[in-house]
Write a structure and sequence with these properties.
mainly alpha, two-stranded antiparallel ribbon, elongated, single chain, ABCG_transporters, 6 helices, ABC-type transporter activity, transport, membrane
């Protein structure tokens, strides 16, 4: 309906990746909740960290544009691993993308028309993945990294909660 890859395997893979990303975000929430003693502190701490993870996760900043001194943020971001895995899942098996000719009139979803101008046209799914500076070979590593982040955040939450409970 929305033009995504309509294969059954791609659908369930997308659902799995979405569940892993949601669980990683929940695990981060557990960690912040166990780390801070007050809701106000947690609410002040979480948004800047989340925005940094989102920026360096590849949504707003191309993967190759991340400065070297912020590269660690990219690798701690579950948005990075989820985004790369979803992009690979969507485009891996797309071998042809229709490219309109010069100054073609395109039918839009809202029943209007638009004129396409000449420019670089991406023709395969592999080109889409490469344009975003992702690699098909890292799909399994992305899934593994999401699972690892879930375990790390939950372990850190447990340690923080344990330390807070023993202080009293």
């Amino acid at each position: 309906m929305v033009g995504l890859n309509s294969g059954v395997i791609q659908f369930f893979t997308c659902a799995l990746i979405s569940v892993l990303v949601a669980n990683t975000a929940c695990s981060f929430g557990y960690f912040i909740s166990c780390l801070t003693s007050d809701v106000t502190i947690a609410l002040a701490l979480t948004p800047p960290v989340m925005v940094a993870f989102l920026i360096f996760g590849g949504y707003f900043l191309n993967n190759s544009s991340v400065p070297v001194y912020f590269i660690w943020f990219k690798y701690m971001s579950w948005f990075y691993y989820g985004n790369e895995a979803l992009v690979i899942n969507q485009w891996r098996n797309i071998h042809h993308i229709h490219c309109p000719s010069d100054n073609s009139t395109l039918e839009m979803a809202n029943y209007t028309t638009a004129t396409a101008t000449t420019g670089h046209c991406i023709r395969t799914g592999r080109e889409v993945i490469e344009t975003l500076h992702f690699s098909e070979n890292r799909f399994t590593a992305d899934i593994t990294a999401l699972l690892l982040l879930i375990l790390v955040f939950r372990s850190m939450a447990f340690i923080a909660l344990f330390m807070r409970s023993t202080r009293r």
